[in-house]
Write the structure tokens for this entry.
Amino acid sequence: MMKIYASLMFILFFPFMSKPQLWTTLNPLPTPNSIHQVEFISQDTGFITGGNSTFLGTTDGGLSWKSVPYPIEGVQLSSLNFFGKNLGILVSWSHIYITTDGGNSWTYKKKQLNGDYTNSFFINDTIGWLCGTYQIVTKTTDGGLTWQTLSNNISGAMHYFDIEFATENTGYVAGYSWDTPSQPVLKRSDNGGRTWHEVLLPADVYKIKDIFVISEEELWIAVGNASLNPGNDGYTAKAYHSSDGGNSWVYHDLGLCYSSAGISRIHFEDDDHGWAMAQSHIYITEDGGQNWVSKLISSNMFMPLEDCSNPIDSIFYVVSTLPEILKTTDNGTTWNSQVSGIKGYFNDIRFSDNEHGLLCGFDLSETFIYKTDDGGTNWIKTFGQSRNGIQEILEIAIPTPGIVYALGNQDFILKSKDAGNTWLKMSFNSNKIYKHIAATDSLNIILGAIDGSILKTIDGGFSWYEYQLNQPSGYTLYNSFEFIDNLIGYATLSNSGSLGKLMVTDDGGLTWRISDYGSVNKIISISCSTNNTCLISIANEGLSKTVNAGQSWEPITTSSDLTNTIVKVFDDLTFLAAFRNTLVAVSFDGGNNWEVAIDENPQGGVIKKHLFISPSKGWNIGTGNLIQAYFNPTLSLVDACRPDQNEGFIYPNPSTNSLQIKIDTWKTIAFFDIKGRKIKEFDFANRYQLNQIDLPSGIYFVELLTQQKRHIQKLLIL
């Protein structure tokens, strides 16, 4: 077998596939990325910014959001501020994005300094300031067209993250010391930002998260360290107020908060009305800050609130990194989420075909299973049960069509005989916590615990037998089982470091032996076909394969960069590798040659698990309620029938409303849109022409099935 070195493999051997359809976000919407800031310039018109250059706008009060183009990919956008209804500025890293027409159009500028921009402030429509790391302070007097650097010093490593001015001359900047992050800094300028002097802070302030300047002498600071309540039933959120430029401070107890991180934002709309926010709480004052009312906006006590906008009385918009967008129209009494989809922590996702899938996970109150019949666009909850502390559904197995098993972490398994519509709970008595499940048919189920315990049933769960891996000392079951059939299976092990072992059974898990895969490093992923062909990805090494059920292994790629590669084997020759969540590559010749299926980083949180049911169809789940899918119909779904992509079987192309078919005796012909959704299908009729296909103008993928082959071709409808 030809050995391909990965430094060339992912560059030279994947050049000939054009960039196909990107990852499609199914959940949540309008964005899977973390949200950092929200700004509404009226009751209905507003913007949100977040990770991976997320910039969205709404004109209907958040009922719908549209992407606002941002010129640089991958930037973590956080600082968005408007002065009035027209002038807005978004800064992050070395990027400056300005609008003077309320967000209808934006102008991009880049001003590279020693450090990154973190925040902005305009006092009128011409004069404004930027602050940033390494004591960056820059100023504009022409509405952001040009900027003058007033301060930028890497010595002392002082970082600024918020800046506000009361007049053209007097303003404040807040930050911290790089060497001592628990040492907050507050400075004042009386000459427009040219020079600054330090303002003394209260002794119990270890971090400033936000400042709000009311006048030259009056300001508030949001304290980023909360105090533990005397009764140890939570923390006290606190803020400080000064009426004499920081010479003296008045302490304000805002109320209970769930986190020691304290207040993240504080803001006043006028002399009386203001708000502050901490984790899962917002605090509202109507008397200038003398008294505060605490409002819990979410039952999720772990919701980190990032920003709030209060365009008019009683209406608030709050955003969180989860991501979450919450809106109230009754001054915080009730809150409605503007993020749609399933919310929770996802453990596993499984599909039996392109359309039918199951998702398991949990939220703060229950563990759940959802089902989809349309490829993940819509989900219906089919199981929900109180968590009773830590109860979770961990993994799902679909051994045969219609039969599903779901493993819980507290001595139970759920079984469905109708593809996940209804569930029967089956318990087993064990003092082990089983975390992995493999089901080779409707009767044979094997569970695995971290300590190497094996629990097996051959009658669908009515009786159970316990065995042991008898793994080497110091090693535990690492990430999964992989069973080829009722007899042959694999278990990957690891120790407390990065070393690994691979154990193989050929008697259904009764006994296990160590398989030498040519390395001591742990196995990140393993996948097998039904004919004893397996592919593994080895941490810091690359990919290896066996064709004899683990008796011998041969490397097919070598690179220390292949640390996080997920592999999938569909048959003896058809492989897939998902590389660092950004590159999906496929091989149709047993790993000798590879081609790119997709090379785009899926947006959103950290990817937790990939699932691929064919080289052209896959899903992933991740943090932040993330569910995504990719579809690439230009790749063959059946290795042995892989078509010549240059040979068309339909014409004319482009077409309008009819097609000629060159292939005799076809079974079905189906039309898919660019997102992989089946639009139309026609059955075999010994015909060579399709009339009145009635498809809207656009690009489609046409799939034609014969008795032996599958053909795929791109079609343009005019």
In short: Residues 215-296 form one domain.
